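Why this split exists: single-chain examples teach little about how molecules sit against one another. For that reason, every record in the complexes split bundles all components of an assembly together and asks for one structure covering all of them. Below is a record exactly as it appears in the raw files.
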Amino acid sequence: MSKPTAILLISCPDQRGIVARLSTFVFERGGNIVDSDHHSDLQAGRFLGRIEWEDDSDAAGRVLLRQELAAVADPMGGHWELHFSDVVPRIAIWCSRQEHCLLDLLWRHQAGELGAEIACVVSNHDLLRRHVAPLGLPFHVFPVTAATKAEQEQQQLGLLRRERVDLVILAKYMQVLSGDFLRAFPDVINIHHSFLPAFAGAQPYHQAHARGVKIIGASAHFVTEDLDAGPIIEQDVVRVSHRDTAEDLVRKGKDMERLALARAVRLHLNHRVLTYANKTVVFE
Amino acid sequence: MSKPTAILLISCPDQRGIVARLSTFVFERGGNIVDSDHHSDLQAGRFLGRIEWEDDSDAAGRVLLRQELAAVADPMGGHWELHFSDVVPRIAIWCSRQEHCLLDLLWRHQAGELGAEIACVVSNHDLLRRHVAPLGLPFHVFPVTAATKAEQEQQQLGLLRRERVDLVILAKYMQVLSGDFLRAFPDVINIHHSFLPAFAGAQPYHQAHARGVKIIGASAHFVTEDLDAGPIIEQDVVRVSHRDTAEDLVRKGKDMERLALARAVRLHLNHRVLTYANKTVVFE
Amino acid sequence: MSKPTAILLISCPDQRGIVARLSTFVFERGGNIVDSDHHSDLQAGRFLGRIEWEDDSDAAGRVLLRQELAAVADPMGGHWELHFSDVVPRIAIWCSRQEHCLLDLLWRHQAGELGAEIACVVSNHDLLRRHVAPLGLPFHVFPVTAATKAEQEQQQLGLLRRERVDLVILAKYMQVLSGDFLRAFPDVINIHHSFLPAFAGAQPYHQAHARGVKIIGASAHFVTEDLDAGPIIEQDVVRVSHRDTAEDLVRKGKDMERLALARAVRLHLNHRVLTYANKTVVFE
Amino acid sequence: MSKPTAILLISCPDQRGIVARLSTFVFERGGNIVDSDHHSDLQAGRFLGRIEWEDDSDAAGRVLLRQELAAVADPMGGHWELHFSDVVPRIAIWCSRQEHCLLDLLWRHQAGELGAEIACVVSNHDLLRRHVAPLGLPFHVFPVTAATKAEQEQQQLGLLRRERVDLVILAKYMQVLSGDFLRAFPDVINIHHSFLPAFAGAQPYHQAHARGVKIIGASAHFVTEDLDAGPIIEQDVVRVSHRDTAEDLVRKGKDMERLALARAVRLHLNHRVLTYANKTVVFE
């Protein structure tokens, strides 16, 4: 798939003719649709769609396209986004002391899997700098205490703005972001090391071990003010047995964390995820 | 989802404007699209789509709809089908001596999961009549030998025509259907008790046991003249260990056979499966 | 495996020489061990073991065996059970209005998968009698209200005693058993239609749909007084998507309920499950 | 589990009293068994066992232990191995141009998951040196052509001897090892990028894409002279759909390759794998 594409994501009240109007819009501008997927949640009365078409217009053409699309999509009364596959999103990876999710994302980035640029890595500790510095990526440390958190978040928001970051990935970042932060920068994906909503909160593997479950999991989700309660994008699971200690669960779970987080990030960066009613629609 | 729907499945050479023309067609006839999914296989240059919209027209309206749709879809130069969700398909379940897939389908039918009418059950043995007769379903026995096979297949085709059967399900029917039969009646789904293409042919669980695999599977596929080589609709797998004998593999595999076959049948009966290039596209 | 076997399950404080003493005991009585599996939970300081050996002694020989074994095992200060593979356990299946788990167990029983005798089927409704009566199995109805529950449970316990039932299987029995009942008859396995501990309690599929999870599950567990909090024996999961309504989750979940319950029951009937600290050890 | 352990792996003709003799042997030497697992393949008439007990004897004590064990185990007429958990195995990772399995193993090594020392990394190309050198690990390049292969294998064997390597891991090493090499150094684990025995040989993902399978997999196996036909240790699978191109299969498959290879290596390094009859017994 060599040609760049335009991607429209739209969520709006269900109504007759949406697909026709949008696909006709694309057709009349000479676009060839390569993938389109629409779903109506009849219970919620909501239309949710994604259209991707080949588009090699220049910057001016894209400004125009966005204006013309607004004329069609705005009256539908919902939320829509237009993306272009050749505009590479910029991400910031946030970590604390555990390296597995960070290393996994760094490796996928080098392998060309993510389709994003890593603007910077952020941590509340200096520990993982040694994995980041050799790659020539900026590594920023913001130590956080209860007293300094509000101030540090302002600094972090400043960094995200300066670096034009599109998505923050919490790759085992063990701090809770405030509501103020999330209102200022809402595009944040977290990996929680349990099969949510089971074992939200602290020490999920130890909770799972104590409960004696036979399967454990990991959940990648958008971050909201409610801890571990945001819209789930992707989950994965692995079997465990009575022979597994809590430490074995941690080890096995790390693999699921890496997979679930990487898939969720890739889906979002490919503009395949919409949220509504604290859920996600994943077009895949 | 109380209103009946019309469902269009289409496979044709990829070309600009297909989605626009089809969705506009639906819109101009007052249809409300509840689900639509399109995919272009860029390598094969093929467009594959499914559109489902609410439609409560009467018989005459549907004849007209089909004619009008032909005027739009025929020029696209491919294959298309129009179905209506309130037209209940008629299926024939074929079995031999093993009952698990038959019983599973009978149970799902009673539970309203299949969305089909069971026209009859066919077997080359009388053994499973006892499961079918109490439900008031016709049970037809066609003993098959090398000498009688061609003649019996003619009888079977006659039965399928008389009973207006839309789909034959080989639920562990241990006979190979001839090319003549399949040309006369091509809509046949089979369940093969291995993770195809591994272990095609006879005794797949014993082959798997001898090979020492750690995962076994089952594959539901459309039947073609090449044994176990038709387009795969659905597969499922389960872990096994060195403690499992070949008989344990048979037992564990049966559960996967039941699940994979039931899912494949349901997907097909919901008009969610298209085939091209010996593969399936499954819109789910 | 044609010869009958004796099976010892033991849970006791960890101590030196347990395996040696037990396997020497078996050897000195001429037994050939066909399977043995031991595990020490070092954190809990607990030894958990299962030994299975060929044994074709007669009734008198088995009484003697049990006495001699007591002399070896009792001093270990834990809990032990001795079973014989040719003593077929008797089970009672309890159901309410949903038939899928009942039908699945009835089918597996007919297919020889369970290795148990069905003593009777119990329900608080008459609805499912039609599936049970044709098989010649007793079907007992005990309507339960808040007022009659205690009295009905006494009747039920009487039935279990008269029928010499070893295991009660709650196959979607939608009533909570009292602590009194469970103290009198503790061997009860339940299937809960969620991936416990997520979505304990009522309407788990609707809870799961509202939460927007990407994977749902089912959990088979021993019943304790705490609702849905007993030791988990087996769990299974299946992926779901935004296209799945709560009703689709119910349908997909039923398959997992059937599998998880059947596996748990079979493991227990094969004397492969030990419980300690509200967890299970599953020797498989 | 802080104390070191001794681990006995044994495969021999099935016979009465094996467990008793072995566990009594351990007990009489004061060993506390922490894990033991035995299985009789009744069809093959083979006993397969693993016993692990706490052992903190010194070097001289271990020489003695091995001699005394020989007196018990040799007469059983099979194959046995004695390992000690505090003897860290030395591994050599062999790679070609693809880095994902190499990087994964390097990461797990740093995270302490493997329980092995990396003696060196070997490749037929210089490409991946940049990932290895910064860690201070030796990286040896042996370019291989049809003409030089035999000579290079002698060099490689010399390196393995000098470096006292216990296990060679083919982490996407795209060369076939000769029978001569394998007779001289048989402990080699390979990762094949398909669900064996399906799609053995070249380009398995492209084969899988052409066949239209709905699930793909990866298989970690011991290497034998027959290409991709050695005993399978571990397999893993992932679902794919019609939307996945062959390149998507490659990407999704890489994750399964990493997981299956890492698990197989860890199981083997923990002395949990026995082979017989071209199969593995995995004690886990």
